[in-house]
Amino acid sequence: MALNPVQRNYENLTSKNRQFQTEITENSRSDLNYYRRAIIRESAGSAFFLVLFGLLSWLVFSNISTNLDNNTLNWAATTINPVFDAVLGFFTTTGGFGGVGVMAVLLGIFFLWRRQISNLLLLTFSVGGGMLLDSVLKIFFQRPRPDTSTEAAHLTSFSYPSGHAMASACFFGFLIWLSFQFNWRPAVRTAWTIAMLFIILMVGISRIYLVEHYLTDVIGGFLLAAFWLLAVLGAGYKLFQLWQIRRLNRSATPR
Question: What's the pTM value of the predicted model, to 2 decimals?
Answer without folding.
Answer: 0.81
